[in-house]
Design a protein that fits this description.
The protein contains 5 helices and 6 strands; from the N terminus they run H-E-E-E-H-H-E-E-H-E-H. With 173 residues, the protein is an alpha+beta fold. Strand 4 and strand 5 form a beta hairpin.
Length: 173
Amino acid sequence: MNKNQVFNTFHKRALQAALRKWWNLELQHFTHPIALTLTLKQCIRVSEGFVKIDKIAASRNVSHFLNRVNKRVYGTSSRRHGKRLSCLPVVEHDEVHRMHYHLLLDRPGRYTDAEFEALIRECWQKTAWSDKQIYYQADADEGWISYITKHSTKSDFDESIDLGNCNLPRTAE
């Protein structure tokens, strides 16, 4: 290994450790954390042929999905007052695996898991790039954070965290 490879390996591991520590602290402020995996279509048909998914289109699609969910959960307060569900999103993609998102999402207490999963599925299916594969698991924990912050299946770990769609829990100070 040359010096650059050693530095890159160290950098990735340090970033991963810091991210895991930070998100595990944030997890304590989630009331009903759920693990969610959303799979994206790899291409869609347009009038000129086909368009292949990229990280920008994937992020916009997840943003559209989260807007739909937040609108259903909070009504007009989602736009007027910026009320949004707490969300920690990670995109994964490599040569072997389809592009997909892992999210740590906070289920509102007024919904049962069955009701919220149905809402998630309905909102996801209304996005342009949604694929049918959805994984929903209640009671997400540190194991889920370790899983979604793994290095494998991420073409670029530094850019796999979707900060544009990240919404941290609001904590009392």
